[in-house]
Amino acid sequence: MLLDPQADPVWAEQQIASAGMQDATRIALPGMxxxxxxxxxxxxxxxxxxxxxxxxxxxxxxxxxxxVIGIDNARRTLEAGFTTIRDLxxxxxxxxxxxxxxxxxxxxGPTIVPAGRxxxxxxxxxxxxxxxxxxxxxxxxxNSENLCSGADDCRRAVRSQIxxxxxxxxxxxxxxxxxxxxxxxxxxxxxxxxxALTLGARPSAIFVFITLPNVRWALLYxxxxxxxRARIDFDQRSVTVQGGAARVLGGLVVLAGVIxxxxxLDRAARLPV
Length: 273
Fold this sequence. Notes:
α7 (191-201) links the parallel β6 and β7. The protein has helices at 9-18, 51-57, 63-79, 92-103, 134-142, 151-163, 191-201, 215-220, 262-266, and strands at residues 38-43, 82-87, 111-114, 120-121, 147-148, 168-172, 207-211, 225-226, 248-249, 252-255, 258-261. By secondary structure, it is an alpha/beta fold. Strands 1-2-3 form a three-stranded parallel sheet. It contains nine helices and eleven strands.
């Protein structure tokens, strides 16, 4: 319980008594600022801080090596003040094992909300076989339950991640900076596939996190959370919001890390692309 030292002392004691905390330890922090736990909404907990080293050593690393990196990253993340993170792209078995180890007290780290592997089209932003030689590409495809082609297959990919413990679903509707292919940043999934992805997640009350070039797609396809790098290039009033759509709360549309008022959205059509 946090109490303002300038508050009425009698009122403060009443609050302590009502919470049944009369015997709790009291810590005075004069002249200090108490910061609540921070939340990082986009983390890759198993990533090596040294990206060049990570790519060079990738062929010799196994799941156990990456778990060591993840355990260390989790500890350092908590020590930096982050008490909750959302991991948006890791092996679902590894990240849920790390999550459970932290929750049970065996490991030190923040609360982890895992997405598992990012769902992608074949040859898209999340296809780990892009530009690999044929032997390595074959191996990558054998472990590519996150890739899909066609609406039914995309529903299957979503359900696969959920069945293994994913608490949020991430899919890349576009290319990305780290894609090993010249696919560009335009839409990669078909309209039918995008609808199937969101509908596949909804029965399990899973938020959908998506890499989008604009917010209009998120509204049209029922995305509840969108990447902060989404571009606003539409007039919200011209978009039909279907079955949940991007979360609209009290006049706010929430995009991971970004809150946009209706006023801003109403003026979005006049923003330069």
